[in-house]
Amino acid sequence: MKKVLLVVLEDRMQDEISSYLQSNQYICKKVEGFKAALKAIKEELFDVIIVDCKFVEVYGWGLCQEINTTTSSSVLALFEHKPQDDLTTRLLGEVDDFIVQPFCKEELLIRMEALLRKKAWKHRLEINGLIWDEARYEMSYKDKQIKLTPKEFTMIGYLMRHPNQVFARDTLIQLIWGLDSDTEGRTIDSHVRNIREKVRQSGFPIDDYYQTVWGVGYKWVNASIS
């Protein structure tokens, strides 16, 4: 079942949306406040996150930025009116789709399912012959399979899905091992060395893509997703 996070300030609307989506085989989690929302996206994986634009008015842009930085969740915004002012125009750049209130729940479901179909292709990345396939949990280059451990597979996937974005070691630890992990930065470095060596053996020029940002962490550069 698909998981949805509801970040909506009005309890009545939150309950109505949750009840309707649950009747359509979705798992819904409701949160109140910025800290609760931030905690939820760092501890759980959601297919869709529904954000009320009123939440942004009250708490600012931190949540939307955190969603885009640390998750691959699709974001659907709820607007009170058509995007015209600076706030709603800026929010459009942070979300995948929006719907204007009042709206029927059927339209909300249709838009969510469209986002999920659009998202499906992101589970398979191909970059100059290097394929990262999340559905099959496989990585290959020119039909030659590259055997990675689960954490190695997850780590390179994060970077490939966010080209040119620098991931600090601490961020990678939180994303892959969890917030309460006592894993050290040296473990990240060890995993990166292993990933590079395994991919390098396949013939792919990994060192041109998986780069070190000295004193900070790592990034994937010059990657065009097809």
TrEMBL record:
It is found in: Cytoplasm. Keywords: DNA-binding, Phosphoprotein, Transcription, Transcription regulation, Two-component regulatory system. GO terms for biological process: regulation of DNA-templated transcription. Residues 122-222 form the OmpR/PhoB-type domain. InterPro entries: CheY-like_superfamily, OmpR/PhoB-type_DNA-bd, Sig_transdc_resp-reg_C-effctor, Sig_transdc_resp-reg_receiver, WalR-like, WH-like_DNA-bd_sf. Its main location: cytoplasm. Residues 122-222 bind DNA. Pfam families: Response_reg, Trans_reg_C. The modification 4-aspartylphosphate is found at residue 52. One of its GO terms (cellular component) is protein-DNA complex. Residues 3-116 form the Response regulatory domain. PANTHER family: ALKALINE PHOSPHATASE SYNTHESIS TRANSCRIPTIONAL REGULATORY PROTEIN PHOP, REGULATOR OF RPOS. This is DNA-binding response regulator, OmpR family, contains REC and winged-helix (WHTH) domain. It comes from Oceanobacillus limi. The lineage of its organism: Bacteria, Bacillati, Bacillota, Bacilli, Bacillales.
